[in-house]
Amino acid sequence: MSGKAYMAPEKKIKNVFDLNPWYFSKAYEEYLAFLHRLNDSVIGVHTTADIRCSPLVIDFIDMLDSLEKWIDKIPLEEVSEQRFGNKAYRHFYERLCKEAPELLQQVLPAEAHDAIIELVTYFTESFGNATRIDYGSGHEANFLIFLFCLQKIGVFNNEDNQVLVLRIFNKYLRVCRHLQTKFKMEPAGSRGVHAIDDFQFAPFIFGSAQLIGSKNLVPDSYLKKTVVEAHAHTSLFLDCVNFINQTKTGPFHEHSNQLWNISAVPHWKKVNSGMFKMYEGEVLKKFPVVQHMFFGSLFSFDRSENVKETNEEDIQPPQNSGMPPRAPAQHGMFAFKIPSVANSSTVRSATVVESGDLRSLHTHKHPEEHCPPPMAEP
Question: Whole-model pTM?
């Protein structure tokens, strides 16, 4: 894509009224399609599978490895009463912002160097926020957008999808976990036990795809700590659960209520599709998350040409149906509420997923089970 006019990305979602243009943008459509391609490429594929890595992929992994080595060299600052956020993290982020252009220049082919003006923003935004010293699914999304942009300019292609997930993204997770644990980073926008995880989301999507077709592991299996430890190396999903088990104490159903609920889903294919719906609802359609997104020529805020125009007949229920308007879901693992500003049109082909007690699929419910309170609308 040499000769293309690249630009420094800018924020476009400045209030809730900008959500509709985002839902119908090229960025939303192309990014979601990219995630589906990545997801499909790892269905039934173990993390430890023998995958060919090109010299470019190895260079990327080495570059991420160098970032991880920075972490070990930064001494922690003395904190007295702070539970989260060691200010020493800011030294890491300052160095990242300073050296990122050169790091990308070293690993990217020469024909992609013009795009660094756009790529560097997504790359530096991938590792947390220096002001709040926090990290969340929005930062994780920036790294995936970074990979999306690299594929869009031809640095990677569809044949590299497995490598992007199981090698580069997997290494990125290791770096972020190192940051989270050393600097005690605060979960960005965490809803506590009502979120799927304090920090990550995408590995649960890709990891559930890896487990589709497994004859030995069912969703209920990851409630067993020994099973998770034995198979964490095979799936990003189980690897994330293993990390949770290592860093959290107390009953699993208390500190990871949403994940505990998911374990009642009968098979991994349904878990995987539910994860995508939840990702849209809890990440891509949440103003507190997407207000921090940046848009340029590669990740474009322009309206998609594939948007299907709708009218009021498509939106309103039949007048004589005898059925009341469907109430939005209040709670439940795969439930989400489409923000009211989007009610004037259908948001892609997504539907509001009704809440349900997934744990009722079990014969014996946990005595302390309870539904989380309704989600507050942004």
Answer: 0.81
